[in-house]
Amino acid sequence: MKKRSITSIIVFLVALTAPCPDGLSQTQTRIYTSHERKQDEKEQREPSKTERRLTDEQADSLAFEKALNAIKQLNFVLEADYISSARMGTTYVDNGTNFVSVSDNRAVVQISPRSDIGGLNGVGGITLEGTASNIVMKTDKKGNVTVNLNVQGAGISASIHIAIPQGSNRATATVSPNYSSNATTLGGRLLPSEESNVFEGRAF
Fold first, then answer.
1. What is the pTM of this model?
2. d(Cα 15, Cα 91) in Å, to the nearest integer?
3. Is the pLDDT of residue 196 over 70?
């Protein structure tokens, strides 16, 4: 009787470890709880701080390269979101009506701090148009870029200094009149002209 029991146990163990015949193989499916599914969706939906930082850096780097190419092609617009001067301090403005643009040898400086329609240009300020010349771009050891040019026209005689820090399209343009010390700085994003949405008023 005992011998038969031992034999039965051996047969049972062999049956457990034997491979399943074709057509009878087992499959395994992981079933997730609603909490696990929500947690997984949240992790996929929300990138980590490192991923966000890398994405932002890549976007800034691309914007910087596009800004440099636009400068080299003399086809750019600096859309200003603030204006600063010794006389008026710093004022935040509409970047659609405040800008410095260069298209080949045509340069435009538009300063419109007022939000209502008015001013000499019809959009709350003044628009000065002139011919750009002596345009020089420099890059320092850290990759920061500066552009200097002269602008001469009926209502403007000035030098313009544009500064762009490495890795970004944020820039400043300081407009210094040749016959006074009332320099004005416009700060914002420097974009290729085709990507800009500024509105140009009546030139002075």
1. 0.74
2. 85
3. yes
